[in-house]
Specification:
alpha/beta; Rossmann fold; disordered C terminus; 429 residues; binds beta-D-galactopyranuronic acid
């Protein structure tokens, strides 16, 4: 047997043996954070130091991207062969009391194997400005209809599937507090949302109901070590939304933002890293496997996350369950892959499960890469105080309260995007 194959088998055995651990202890005590060295984002695997943009782009960035693909989120297929047709199923030029034009677009996916799948996008465009506008793209957790009380928003197709799988809160407007549509629209931004279950139902047992079966070589019961997990597929879905928005004549395709909360914050980071059309990449309370440094092992850890959500990452990531010290990379290196575009990390004070300090440090440690581009990362290793947003070329804020997306978060994101895009807000603030 070839050496490569033997190594692969050995790796797969370790994956199975190390497994995941739902009962792994969770540490909340800063004094018990293990002593570790933050992997040097500027040092290539062969020891060479990155001194130029060229070295970063040609050598270090691809090598890091490969590590995250092979060992954490799984490899995004280069050509899925999946075709998408867009179908405008509803529109309203006077939505939200005249503030917005609403469009609902069905994505009809067809795989090379003839299998089909559907997803539904909800788009609000501001009526108060003419011409092209920036857009915030963001998945929702429980259906488009939960993001607003507007009666004409169609229930997302995944509702029945997920409700019968035990997922609740699918009622109209139930998550509206997380969607500051009015604020965004008044400030001249479009917002596009889709239910993430439409792309990959968020359960290890429901993979066959999403996009996955449309892929060539899909096998229901088996996954290769580096096969993409749900986060990878959701990220792919974000890119399909970007494909559509590029064709939408009111959208400024140079001003696309991807924003996600929690597991969808992990997803927005992975999507933003891979798809350069997203000029601002926002992680809201994304925590473990998102913005937070894994090696701090505080709050949610890799044993817990890979045990509770075995379908999110690629199987090879399980090797690091209860063994974060062995990780050859950490999440700041993921965030750094967004440069020279803009990354924004937000935390909530009471969200210790997501390790706010680790989220901040990750954003901070992207600094050397931004510096290569003559851009400014976060200036201090000290995490800023509550409600003191830091808007450099990298953004960060921590707000009071729990794991959530609030109007305060939206306001900070819009301020940051205004700065990046050089927009002038129509709302006085
Ligand atoms: C938690 C999970 C987190 C986070 C969160 C969410 O249960 O442990 O990693 O992603 O769910 O998505 O709300």
């Amino acid at each position: 047997m070839k050496r490569g194959k033997l190594l692969f088998l050995a790796l797969m055995m370790t994956v199975t043996i190390a497994g995941q651990n739902k009962n792994a202890p969770v540490n909340y005590d800063e004094s018990k954070v293990p002593v570790f060295e933050v992997p040097d984002v500027m040092r290539c695997e062969d020891g060479q130091r990155v001194e130029s943009v060229m070295q970063w782009e040609k050598k270090r960035r691809p090598e890091l991207l490969k590590m995250f693909s092979e060992q954490e989120y799984g490899v995004t297929p280069r050509h899925t062969g999946i075709k998408v047709k867009y179908e405008l199923v509803a529109s309203n030029p006077k939505a939200m009391g005249g503030l917005a034009t609403q469009k609902q677009i069905r994505f009809n996916f067809t795989g090379k194997n003839g299998k089909t799948h559907q997803a539904l996008l909800l788009l609000y465009l501001p009526n108060n400005t003419k011409g092209r506008v920036p857009v915030i793209v963001s998945y929702n957790f429980h259906g488009n209809q939960t993001t607003t009380l507007e009666e004409d928003v169609i229930f997302s197709p995944s509702k029945e599937l997920m409700r019968s799988a035990g997922s609740e809160n699918w009622g109209r407007g139930e998550q509206a507090s997380r969607w500051s549509y009015e604020l965004a629209l008044k400030r001249g931004y479009a917002v596009a949302t889709m239910n993430y279950h439409d792309i990959y139902p968020d359960s290890p047992e429901l993979r066959e109901y999403g996009i996955s079966p449309l892929l060539q070589g899909y096998k229901e019961d088996s996954r290769a070590g580096n096969e993409w997990g749900a986060i990878g597929v959701w990220a792919w879905g974000y890119s399909r939304i970007a494909d559509y928005l590029e064709k939408e004549k009111r959208i400024d395709k140079d001003c696309m933002v991807v924003l996600g909360h929690s597991r969808l914050g992990k997803t927005s980071l992975w999507a933003g890293v891979q798809d350069k059309r997203f000029k601002v990449v926002i992680s809201n309370d994304s925590g473990c496997g998102g913005a937070a440094l894994s090696k701090r092992v505080i709050g949610e850890n890799l044993a817990r996350i890979t045990a509770n959500f075995p379908h999110w990452f690629c199987p090879a990531f399980n090797v690091y369950s209860e063994n974060e010290a062995a990780l050859p990379f950490d999440q700041h290196e993921l965030l750094a892959l967004v440069a020279p575009r803009h990354v924004y990390v937000a935390s909530a004070e009471d969200d210790q499960w997501a390790d706010p300090k680790g989220e901040y440090l990750s954003a901070y440690y992207t600094g050397p890469v931004y510096k290569l581009y003559n851009m400014q990362g976060l200036p201090s290793k000290e995490q800023p105080a509550i409600h003191q947003p830091q808007h450099y070329d990298v953004g960060y804020h921590i707000r009071a309260g729990k794991h959530d997306v609030t109007e305060y978060d939206w306001r900070c994101y819009l301020d940051f995007c205004d700065k990046v895009f050089g927009c002038f807000s129509t709302e006085a603030h």
